[in-house]
Amino acid sequence: MIPVCRIEDLPEGESLRVEAGDATAAIAVFHTDGAFYAIDDTCSHQDASLSEGWLEGCYVECPLHAALFDLRSGEPTCLPARKPVRTHAVTVVDGMLYVHPAVRTVPGEPVHAAPEEAVA
Ligand code: FES
């Protein structure tokens, strides 16, 4: 579990990149549509940082070639990306946002936490 930031430090519509350590690639964390989402930061098409992309609801558009990824599943919805990026669980505990990089998810299954949600 990686501490990201206090939830007030990641306002709605914003994103940030989290270095997850040597064993895991960097993770992009987003606050959009009233929830937090985390996916691999590197686009599955080439080497672009998705945390620098543009948010459209629960989707992020890659800043390099405009592939659109669903933050809930990691699946691309258009070319040129063909492969999904991994999603990561997000929890909020006492106002602190955490990412769980080891958790793999089932495509199509949402993994997000509302700001007021706390996980023991
Ligand atoms: S690097 Fe993301 S779509 Fe090409």
TrEMBL record:
InterPro entries documented for this protein: Rieske_2Fe-2S (IPR017941), Rieske_2Fe-2S_sf (IPR036922)
Gene Ontology MF terms: 2 iron, 2 sulfur cluster binding; dioxygenase activity; metal ion binding; monooxygenase activity; oxidoreductase activity, acting on paired donors, with incorporation or reduction of molecular oxygen
Superkingdom: Bacteria
Swiss-Prot/TrEMBL keywords: 2Fe-2S, Dioxygenase, Iron, Iron-sulfur, Metal-binding, Oxidoreductase
Domain called Rieske: residue spans: 2-99
PROSITE patterns, alphabetized: RIESKE (PS51296)
Transmembrane segments: none
Keyword Metal-binding part of the UniProt annotation: yes
Protein name: Bifunctional 3-phenylpropionate/cinnamic acid dioxygenase ferredoxin subunit
Species whose genome carries this gene: Streptomyces antimycoticus
Gene that specifies this protein: hcaC
